[in-house]
Amino acid sequence: MTNSQKKHVGDSSTSQKKANKQSKCFRHTAEQVQHLKEFLKKCPHPDKDQLIQIGKEVGLNPKKIKTWIYNNKTTTKTQIEKSDNKTLWTENERFRCENIAMKEAMKKIICPQCDSKRASNLENLKEENQRLTDEDEKLSRVTTTRGVDKGHE
């Protein structure tokens, strides 16, 4: 009986392809993986001869080893990126909370002279700054004119 005769009624060619694909799935043994990891630590970028040599040692063809190395590096890179992203996300959340806390603290600042919340109002601060600048200019003019008057005496 051939494979086509074994085909059950109602089976589609798609399910047959899936079954064939699943039977082709290959898993490395724990010993092979351990040996490959150790090899990869020693030689992160193996050439063709090294792939052939390690293939003989673990019983795999060089193409499977090359594929395993590529997948392993990709998986490792993805894990590192996820870890970095989690760290950055946590740090970002911490900064966001600090920022909110500082904004709340700025709202509650009390002006020591008038015992009110005027210091948190930017417009009031600008007006106060302008008033003090004008006062400083007046005092500068007065002291300059007095200095000139004294020089002429």
Topology:
Elements: H1 3-6, H2 13-23, H3 30-42, H4 48-58, H5 62-107, H6 122-152
Word description of this protein:
The protein is mainly α and 153 residues long. 76% of the residues lie in helices and 0% in strands. It is built from six helices and no strands. α4 (48-58) packs across α5 (62-107). The radius of gyration is 39 Å and the shape is rod-shaped.
Instruction: Label the structural class.
Output: mainly alpha
Rg over CA atoms: 39 Å
Residue-averaged pLDDT, rounded? 79
The count of β-strands is 0
Helical fraction: over 70%
Elements, N to C (H/E)? HHHHHH
The proportion of strand residues reads under 5%
Q: Give the end-to-end Cα distance, rounded to a whole number of Å.
A: 132 Å
Described by strand count, sense and barrel closure, the largest sheet is: none
Q: Are there runs of 5+ residues with pLDDT below 50, and where? A: 1-11
Inertia-based shape: rod-shaped
Secondary structure tally, helices: 6
Quick structural overview:
Pfam families: Homeodomain. With 153 residues, the chain is mostly helical.
